[in-house]
Amino acid sequence: MFSDYFAINLGDFNQEFFESLDGSRHITSPTMATEKYYHTVYVEGENAGIVGFIPVEGAPYTGFVQIVLAPAYRGKGLVGKIYDRMIEIHGLKTLYATIDRTNTTSIHAHDKIGFKMLPEAELNDLRNQGLLAPYEIRMKRVA
Question: For the purposes of burial, counting CB atoms within 10 Å of the CB of 20, is it exposed (0-12), middle (13-18) or buried (19 or more)?
Fold first, then answer.
């Protein structure tokens, strides 16, 4: 696997690089308060993507994760290694990912690294509360 052969590091968030990434519009742009939870992903010293999370208020060590990779780094098995590095840095225990249900590539990548789809009844409850759009699903991983 690609990710087994290359060094993956997380650095300070780079807004300009973030805005240059195709797919960044699907991620909540970090604010001054949340920017400390976002990182530029480096593979062998090259900008490869952005990863971050939004902390869950009242639930320590829990976050809603977001990731976008440059096209050259997609499909290489990097997502799990990147999340693992973020878990190490921030001490996360529970990760949630909200994904467009038509983005089967992302759903598969998250499933492959241990994320599980929330039960349909729970998804419907979140939608009824306005916390999840009709076209989104939510997955969970306990580290």
Answer: exposed
**In which residue are the tokens 């929330």 written?**
118
CA dihedral 126, 85, 60, 12 (to 10 degrees): -90
Cα–Cα dist 30/53, whole Å: 9
Q: How many whole angstroms separate alpha carbon 101 and alpha carbon 77?
A: 20
pTM, rounded to two decimals: 0.88
Indicate the fold that domain 2-142 takes in CATH.
Answer: Aminopeptidase (3.40.630)
Helix (H, G, I), strand (E, B) or coil at 114: coil
CA–CA dist 46, 138 (Å, integer): 30
Beta carbons within 10 angstroms of residue 115's beta carbon = 24
Cα(110)–Cα(65) distance, rounded to whole angstroms? Answer: 11
Give the model confidence (pLDDT) of 42-92 as tens digits: 999 999 999 999 999 999 999 999 999 999 999 888 999 999 999 999 999
| Contact between residue 85 and residue 8 where contact means Cβ atoms under 8 Å apart | yes
